[in-house]
Amino acid sequence: DTGVSQNPRHKITKRGQNVTFRCDPISEHNRLYWYRQTLGQGPEFLTYFQNEAQLEKSRLLSDRFSAERPKGSFSTLEIQRTEQGDSAMYLCASTSTWALYFGPGTRLLVL
Amino acid sequence: DAKTTQPPSMDCAEGRAANLPCNHSTISGNEYVYWYRQIHSQGPQYIIHGLKNNETNEMASLIITEDRKSSTLILPHATLRDTAVYYCITGGSEKLVFGKGTKLTVNP
Fold this sequence. Notes:
- The complex is a heterodimer of chains A (about 110) and B (about 110).
- Chain A is built from no helices and eleven strands.
- Chain A has strands at about 5, 10-15, 20-25, 30-35, 45-50, 55, 65-70, 75-80, 90-95, 100, 105-110.
- In chain A, the strands form two sheets. In chain A, strands 2, 4, 5, 6, 9, 10 and 11 form a seven-stranded mixed beta sheet that branches. A four-stranded antiparallel beta sheet of chain A has the order 1-3-8-7, with no helix packed on it.
- The radius of gyration of chain A is 13 Å and the shape is globular.
- Chain A starts with a strand and ends with a strand.
- In chain B, the strands form two sheets. Chain B has a five-stranded mixed beta sheet, with no helix packed on it. Chain B has a four-stranded antiparallel beta sheet with strand order 2-7-6-5, with no helix packed on it.
- Chain B has strands at about 10-15, 20-25, 30-40, 45-50, 55, 60-65, 70-75, 85-90, 100-105.
- Chain B starts with 8 loop residues before the first strand and ends with a strand.
- Chain B is globular, with a radius of gyration of 13 Å.
- By secondary structure, chain B is an all-beta fold.
- Helices cover about 0% and strands about 45% of the residues of chain B.
- The interface of A and B includes residues 31, 55 and 97 of A.
C-alpha cells in the first residue's frame, strides 16, 4: 500500500466554478478526514467520516462545500461556486487507530 | 481553537538534540498528547503520542510532565531533513485541532 493519495495535486479554477477533489485512503482505514490549510497556518479541520457516515462537520464547511464517502472507501470533496477565499491546500487523512496518515494534499487556486 | 502553546520558531545545530516544548495546561484526563510534523509542501506526518508516560520510537522521544500540563518532543540527533513545522496537539482519538506549531530549522 502506498499511503493516502489525493487527486488532482493542483487545481486552478475561475471564481464561480465548481471543483471536486478525490481522496483514496489507506485500505482498511475506517476513518477519513478532510482538512484545509492556508499559508502560515496549521491545518483546519473540515469534516470526518467513520466508514460511510459523516460524523462531524466544522462550521468552516459552508453550504457550498459537500463531502461524501459513498462506500466507505474513497471520498470526494466538492466546492460549489468557488470564491478566492477558498484558495488553500486541501488535505485528506485516514486512520484506523491513533495516528492520522495524511495525503500530499490538493492545492487549489481560485482566480 | 488549538489548546496548546508552542514557540513559533527554534533553531538547532545538525547532530545535536532538538528539544521542542509545548504547554497544554488545560488538558483533560483522557486526552492524549500528539506530535506531528510538516515538511514544506507535504502533508503532516505523525511522530509520536502519549497519555502520561514517556514514550520513545524510532523518530523521537516524548517527555510528559507529571502534571501533564506540558511536554517536550526530543529529536536526539537532528538532521537537516528534520527541518519542518512541528505541531503539538491534545485530544482524543477523533478529530485533531492543529495550532500554528513550531518552525524548527536545523542548521549545518
